[in-house]
Amino acid sequence: MTKQEKEKHKEKFEKALNEFVKDLKTYVTTDTGEWTVKGFIDIYKNIYTISSDTKIVSKILEIHIFPEILQFAEKYGYKIILAEHQNWYPDLTIIDKDNSDAKFALDLKTTFRRNSKTAGFTLGSHGAYFKERDKSKNIQFPYNQYLGHYCLGIVYTREDFEDDLADTEIYQVQELQEEYGENQDPIKDRQVTNVANLKSITSVIKDFDFFAVEKWKIASDRRGSGNTANIGSINDIKDLKTGNGVFSKLGEEWFDEYWVNYGTATMMKDGKTVKVSSIWDFLEFKGRKDLFSKVVTKGAKRKRKDQE
Question: Which terms are listed as keywords in the entry (predicted)?
C-alpha cells in the first residue's frame, strides 16, 4: 500500500470514528448528564447499584457501548476482531472490509476526572510488541501492520456518596414491579428501597466527555504507572480531546523513537552515565536541541536548568 493510499484510509477511518463519538454521549447519558446504567437486575426485578470502583465502571462501560461499536463498524464498512487474550493489544482491531491491509488498533480508555480540568490514563506498553514491530507477541497483529493506533477516550465524574454503603443499595422500581409470593423473593434481611422510576436512582458516574485520537498525539514523556512499561498520557482534559500532547508538534516518528529507547538509552551528565527519561534529554542526546521549541511543554517533564 502506498503512503498516499494509507493516508486516504486513515482519513476515512478518522472521519467515521469522530462521527461515531459525537453520538455516544446521547447513548450513555440521561438528559441530566447521568449514566443511563443504574445497576444490575435479578429475576425479582430488584435493582442492585454498582460500585464506583474504576475497574468495575470501566468494564461495564465497555459492555454498554460495544453494541454501538458494532453498529459503527457495520455502518462504515469495517469488521471487528477482539483481542484473543485479556492482556493483548489492542482491545479492538478494526479492518476495512474492502481492504484487509487497512487495519486500525483501537483501545478503549476510561478514567475519572481528578478535578474539573485533569484526568489521565495509560496508553499501552512500550515493551516487546512496541519495539519488535514485526512480531506478534501479546498483540493481535504485528504493530507495523496497523495504519494507526487510536484511543477511544471516556472521561467521567464520579458521584460522591456519603459512605460506601451506597454501593450495596437495593431498589425496587414501581415501573418494573411484579407480584411475587412472600417467600419467592429471597431478599428478606436486607433493606430494599422503593422508588417511582429508574431515573430516581443516582448513577455512580456522570458528566461524560468522549474523544477519539491517535495515541501518539496525547502521549506524555512519562511512564503511565509505576515501574511497568506503560506509556503515560497527558493529563489536561482539553488537550486530550484536541490531541495536544508532548509529541503532537514533533511528530509520530519522534514519539516512536523516544519510547522505543525509553529507559535504555543513556547519556553523560556531570561526568556520570544516566538513563534518558525525558524528551529534553532525548533531543539533547540526539543532537536536536533545535527541536525544543516543538515540544508541548505543558505535559512534559521539566527541563533541567542547563537546558533552559
Answer: Endonuclease, Hydrolase, Nuclease
Residue 234 DSSP label? P
Nearest CA-CA partner of 35 in 200, 170, 205, 160 = 205
Contact 295, 246 (CB under 8 A): yes
Prediction pTM value: 0.89
Helix or strand (DSSP H, E) at 219: strand 219-223
Closest CA to 61 of 87, 81, 79, 35: 35
Report how many helices (DSSP H) and strands (DSSP E) the chain contains, helices first: 6, 14
Are the C-beta atoms of 21 and 152 separated by less than 8 Å? yes
In the sheet that holds 219-223, the strands lie side by side as 122-125, 230-233, 219-223
- For residue range 10-49, list pLDDT tens digits in order: 999 999 999 999 989 999 999 889 999 988 888 887 888 8
